[in-house]
């Protein structure tokens, strides 16, 4: 299906960026979700263009069925797209552009509560070593893997890093996270060394380019680009775990910190979690490891 812009697209994205302070990556996710919704509505119900006042709950329900059966989206992905629609129609209601909200009656799909996937210390070392061995100077991929694993930053946060976000002399990185909230994350000696080596050979297309991590054309690397590099590095490291994505390096970082004795409130601050309940899931992960270890007790 060809991309279809949705009504009041610019106003809505401006609202997300300015009033809600969302990152470029998050705003792009909203835009992409709403484009998919609009495409389906035009294809199946409104060939002359989507009419907001004629949208009903049945249309949104059809969208959810389409996501499941034709796009094979899991429950979590469908819930995220439904959340995008909720935000959009709430905005339209506030602005007086619609009188009714077709999403209001719909509830999230129940999802299985899966524990986070993460790499062990050995697997993390293999990933870092592969990024170094199969990379050429200035070892960009090696620096990226170290940043992701050491800081636990989100993919969008790393892609959005600018040169003035780094202070290698004082060894910290400034991150603008969800809700436009800023946090400072200390950098280890090895991560600083990897970044310094990469930055010394960094080749931007434009001398005014501020992005830390660049693609082969010398421009800011994309989310998709990082995921492809990660996938290739996993293959080279012999890692074939299910559900393994760049985001799982964030889980790996916090699980390793917890296992090393770092307390939950500190991990919460490093992660940029608004609520400590988001951090507590890593306790379940470590408890699973403890239970597994205890199962090997010689007394049975």
TrEMBL record:
An annotated Gene Ontology molecular function: DNA binding
Every Tyr recombinase domain range: 114-295
Keywords recorded for this protein, A-Z: DNA integration, DNA recombination, DNA-binding
Pfam families in alphabetical order: Phage_int_SAM_1, Phage_integrase
InterPro entries: CB, DNA_brk_join_enz, Integrase-like_cat_sf, Integrase_catalytic, Integrase_recombinase_N, Integrase_SAM-like_N, Tyrosine_recombinase_XerCD
Coiled coil (UniProt feature): none
Domain Core-binding (CB): 3-93
GO terms (BP aspect): DNA integration; DNA recombination
Family that this chain belongs to: Belongs to the 'phage' integrase family.
Protein name, as recorded: Integrase family protein
Lineage: Bacteria, Bacillati, Bacillota, Dethiobacteria, Dethiobacterales
